[in-house]
């Protein structure tokens, strides 16, 4: 699982976009499922997320999160019709239950549970995409310009988990080479063996903290205004990705409050597809598709890569 949590540079288009632009695009993929209620809008955003995973060559990193999201979504889809008794279209009458009463399975409850499952998978997929295509150092570097103390704390905290896991694995391998078998013996004996690992891990963490503090002091951290060794260039592709994500988010908010992206599940289902709903859905999909089309051109058209 730690391999999926680590960033892998594959030199894809979305990985080469400016950090602010790709964060705006991912924010649209995250906030649109939270804002919109229409099932077609939610399904469209989810499919765009799937396509973004494919074009970013991040299927291996995102698949465990997507599988987890599918299981949770199926659980929600099954649980909601059992607990929610609202809806006028009754599909099945069940026995009397102690707290709920007589079991009523309605079409509206099933549709609402399925829609919430799609929303949940879209949100999980947005976080998985962030983990796969956004470099954590670039994010902390972006926010360190106006919140350098908080960025330092976040950077050290995110570095702690993989470094601690690596130190623990190394200590375990060293103990095994010395003849320690962690799977043999009783509970107290195995607990004593693992306590050795905790001692080694504590010592290595303290030594790492001292080394980090000495390195920061040698570089004059906090003594004066910080400098930046590497600056991200702003290119035409960055403007296009930033505007596409921001436009999709603004249009989604407008469609939601204007009533085009609303959908009522109870007490009876609304009409699924009106002409005005489909128009705004198409505009949002086109905005979200623009970076993915550029990603395809980046991969197959060297001339376009040189221009953007």
From TrEMBL:
<feature type="transmembrane region" description="Helical">
    <location>
        <begin position="239"/>
        <end position="258"/>
    </location>
</feature>
<feature type="transmembrane region" description="Helical">
    <location>
        <begin position="65"/>
        <end position="84"/>
    </location>
</feature>
<protein>
    <submittedName>
        <fullName>Cobalt transport protein</fullName>
    </submittedName>
</protein>
<dbReference type="InterPro" id="IPR003339">
    <property type="entry name" value="ABC/ECF_trnsptr_transmembrane"/>
</dbReference>
<dbReference type="Pfam" id="PF02361">
    <property type="entry name" value="CbiQ"/>
</dbReference>
<keyword id="KW-1133">Transmembrane helix</keyword>
<feature type="transmembrane region" description="Helical">
    <location>
        <begin position="278"/>
        <end position="298"/>
    </location>
</feature>
<keyword id="KW-0472">Membrane</keyword>
<dbReference type="GO" id="GO:0005886">
    <property type="term" value="C:plasma membrane"/>
</dbReference>
<feature type="transmembrane region" description="Helical">
    <location>
        <begin position="105"/>
        <end position="130"/>
    </location>
</feature>
<feature type="transmembrane region" description="Helical">
    <location>
        <begin position="39"/>
        <end position="59"/>
    </location>
</feature>
<feature type="transmembrane region" description="Helical">
    <location>
        <begin position="12"/>
        <end position="32"/>
    </location>
</feature>
<keyword id="KW-0812">Transmembrane</keyword>
């Amino acid at each position: 699982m730690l391999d999926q949590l680590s960033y892998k540079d594959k030199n894809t288009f979305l990985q080469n976009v400016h950090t602010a632009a790709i964060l705006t695009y991912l924010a649209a993929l995250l906030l649109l499922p939270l804002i919109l209620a229409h099932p077609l809008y939610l399904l469209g955003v989810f499919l765009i997320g799937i396509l973004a995973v494919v074009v970013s060559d991040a299927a291996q990193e995102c698949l465990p999160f997507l599988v987890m999201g599918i299981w949770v979504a199926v659980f929600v889809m099954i649980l909601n019709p059992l607990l929610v008794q609202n809806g006028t279209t009754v599909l099945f009458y069940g026995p009397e239950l102690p707290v709920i009463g007589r079991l009523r399975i309605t079409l509206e409850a099933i549709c609402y549970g399925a829609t919430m499952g799609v929303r949940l998978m879209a949100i999980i997929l947005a976080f998985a995409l962030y983990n796969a295509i956004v470099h954590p150092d670039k994010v902390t570097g972006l926010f360190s310009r106006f919140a350098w103390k908080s960025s330092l704390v976040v950077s050290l905290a995110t570095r702690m988990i993989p470094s601690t896991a690596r130190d623990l694995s190394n200590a375990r391998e060293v103990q095994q080479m010395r003849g320690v078998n962690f799977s043999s013996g009783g509970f107290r004996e195995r607990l004593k063996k693992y306590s050795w690992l905790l001692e080694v891990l504590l010592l290595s963490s303290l030594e790492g903290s001292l080394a980090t503090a000495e390195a920061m002091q040698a570089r004059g951290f906090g003594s004066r205004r910080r400098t930046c060794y590497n600056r991200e260039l702003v290119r035409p592709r960055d403007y296009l990705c930033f505007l596409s994500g921001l436009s999709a988010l603004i249009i989604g908010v407008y469609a939601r409050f204007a009533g085009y992206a609303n959908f009522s599940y109870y007490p009876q289902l609304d009409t699924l597809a009106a002409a005005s709903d489909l128009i705004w859905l198409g505009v949002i999909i086109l905005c979200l598709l623009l970076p993915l089309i550029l990603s395809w051109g980046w991969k197959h058209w060297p001339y376009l890569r040189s221009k953007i």
